[in-house]
Amino acid sequence: METISSTVPLTERSYQGLSVTESAALLRRSIFVEQQCMRICAAWLLEAPAYEDKYVLGYHLWDHAEHVQWMRERLHELRGGHAEADIAPALKFALDEALHARDVTELVAGLYGGVKRALLRAYREHVRMADPAANAGEIRILQRMIPDLEKHLRWSEEILERCPTGGNVAAPWQLYLEYLLSRAGGIHGTFPVSMMPAKERPHAHMVRRSAELKFDSRIARKPLAKYEERESMPHEQSVKEQFAVFFNELWAVGLLASVIVDSWDAGCPWEFHYDMAHHCWDELRHSQFGAIRLKELGEEPSRADTFFFDQSQNWPFLHRLVYLTRDLEVFFMKRKSPRFLKYQQEGDGRSMIFADADWSDEINHVRYGTKWSEYFLKDDARTAEDIKEEIRSFIARQQAEAGVTKTDIPF
Predict the structure, then answer these.
(1) In this predicted model, what pLDDT tens digit does every residue of 60-89 receive, in sequence order?
(2) Topology classification of domain 220-402
(3) Helix 20-47, helix 270-296: angle, nearest 10
(4) Could you tell me if 156 and 224 are in contact, meaning their C-beta atoms sit under 8 angstroms apart?
(5) What CATH code is assigned to 20-183?
(6) For the whole model, what pTM was predicted?
């Protein structure tokens, strides 16, 4: 049987199309690259200082999760085997390295200009090689993913254009990642493996999962108005304060990003990472609701209270997940319906739209928390209630060590 050639263009053939084995091999490598892009986007949701960049990275995280889901479903249909079992170490090393940019500009130059541009070329080549009938399932998926990557690259080009040096300072990092991909035979392993001498790493910087949710100088870390205070304010001021709270849901984005990163190598099923990516995207959109509405009301986002994120970062990821989905979101759920009805009564349709979407999303998040806490506690002597008690003991110890008592923790 003819196989995928080690050169591009591929070996001259007397026919068009890919066998099941060939197409599955391309999908396995594509799945791996997209999954690693998820992990890197999650880590940089914590690192990126500008909230606008966090929003874009969160949308891209969800794009990658959807791509992986579509390809995994197709791989199953193709009898394609385990998605990660035969990934070349050189490809894994290249994607591991892509995390370790020194700043957002270098991340964009490397991950986007280097890795995602190569991924886009690989997808276009996959379409070119495929037969419209025999490989129709793969073509359909690829034609849905290609526009997403094109959009990602347009954003990256805008970032580099805004950079004072035009991204030139980050160019060595992009070249380094391109070199590492060449050592792996390219995204799909269809290029000749580079035999060039090892290329020196441009710098020694390593990204460790941050225990801090970073912001730029526009965002002050200060408390927001309490619920009772907001409810007693005149409508317009109450709306502004409530959408400042929406903007502040970046703390939940950060918490979920930390769960995604910390759980990545814990043997969790793919469906867990997919649900966490969806949950993270939802919380990011809620923060975006806040930024949009505040600007419509003549204000810029300016405050963040990351208390819930900060206190949870040394807890196991299971405890962080239970804390968010089965403590905090359950507690705040009772405020959703009255808020929606209040906006409706005030004739504030714009605020009502955002409150309605938030309400629906949070119901799904509680479902995620129940589903996955039950999964992780299977064959565990503890229950979710025991995990909640452990969380309370963590908080009590933290407060005792800090010499403070915070009485407005919502449980």
Answers:
(1) 999 999 999 999 999 999 988 888 888 989
(2) Ferritin (1.20.1260)
(3) 50
(4) no
(5) 1.20.1260.10
(6) 0.93
